[in-house]
Amino acid sequence: MQLPPFLLNDWLERHPGVRYNLGGSCGPDWTMGELVRLGTPELDLGSISIGYCPVEGSSALKAEIAAIYGVDPDWVVVTHGATEALLLIMSALSRPDGNIVMPSPGYDGFAGACIAAQLDPRYYRHPMGPFTERTVEDILANADENTLLLIVNSPNSPTGTSLRRDDRIALGRAFAEKGVPLALDAVYDPFNWGADEQVLTDIQDMIVIGSMSKLLSLPGLRTGWIIDADENRRNRLIRARGYASLGGSPIIEALAVHALRNRETILGRVAAIAANNLGELRSFMDRVDDILDWVRPDKGMVAFPRFRDGRDSRGFCEQLVEKGVLVAPGDCFGMPAHMRIGFGSQEAGIGPALAIIERALRAA
Fold first, then answer.
1. Which of 45, 107, 256, 304 has the most Cβ atoms closer than 10 angstroms to its Cβ?
2. Confidence class for position 2, pLDDT limits 50, 70, 90
């Protein structure tokens, strides 16, 4: 098995320590001290017994995750980030000649997990504008008798655009008629920018993937989850995780429980920073409208502007690194004329970074 290059991860790993990191897709950093001191009582790390965790996650962590969605804690399988969640789902579903239908542009990890599970990735164009009845038909056209799963990433990375509740229902219904479950990658779902929608867990045969990396901007906890009401499939996921990792760390799970119990404080900080920075990004895009265009993100913490002249953005992104600004070139997502800008991590504001980008655009 030959896995493809993980272009986004390779790019980000190659450029650590850049002054203005707009290449990622999380919110502001948290220190261990800040996290354990949240709420009352503070988390006592010294009292944690360092043994094994249940393979599917501790009951306390499953209960906190279930509370986000209003579901039965038994539906929850804790994972080592959303990455392990993808690998477990595809491994549990894998069969000879199987394929997975996934969005483009989209996260590199979808295809990597698919290939690792010896499945064939098939791509549909993620809509950058309003969802139409034809969109469902176009996505459905990628499925055949060997399709095992549809992946929907909403809000989408890299575009920041999302599918409405009715859109997801329509997709879930259309694929359910073919016996294909819908996997909703909902790692950004709480950031609704004015829309009052919750993750759907009532669509027929739906699997929800979540993570603390984006949801709470705590990627170092490496804590994700799968929500699946199908007991048979869930047991296969738990069995696969037993072989893959034997479960998680009691220290990490205790930190995750503490963070989730204080999630309103964490989400409030993340949302305030992202909203402020999105305002600055909108002003920037208005100023450089002759060079770049975009579809304004309606959720999440990333945007995906495009060079109007269609040039490949990688050279420009490399120039920005030299000037102290990191963004992600569009070829990491199969769309070279674009670049992904993360606007959730800079607590002091992204104005200085955008000023550098603007000067570089004018000088190019």
1. 256
2. confident
